[in-house]
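ok trying again, last paste got cut off:
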Amino acid sequence: MLPGYNTDFTYCGQTYHVQTEDNGLGNPVVVTLLYHKGAILASRRTSYRDFVGTAGFEQQLATLMQAQHKAIMSELLAGAYDNNGAAPTVAADTGEASAGAAAATAARP
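nice, full thing came through this time. structure:
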């Protein structure tokens, strides 16, 4: 189990928090949550079961966690969760992705 990431940042004059955690080998899923005023606006869950125990496993997991964390922040800053031009206020984008899809998202400029 790797330590997670927590980031506070400002968008549209509002403070948001992004939290990314590894659920551990018993439940090999990376979970990222986007919060605003204590409410979850978005979540992303990515299984890493396919590469558990492979060579470079911990580095792959760390890369996945960083990529997923950055992707949620980038999506917010790009307006993906905006509410008609205003800062996000309701739950959006909840889903599960594969580790490969998360890595491909992170590789985008």
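cool. Helices lie at 57-77, 99-107. The first strand starts at residue 5 and ends at 11.
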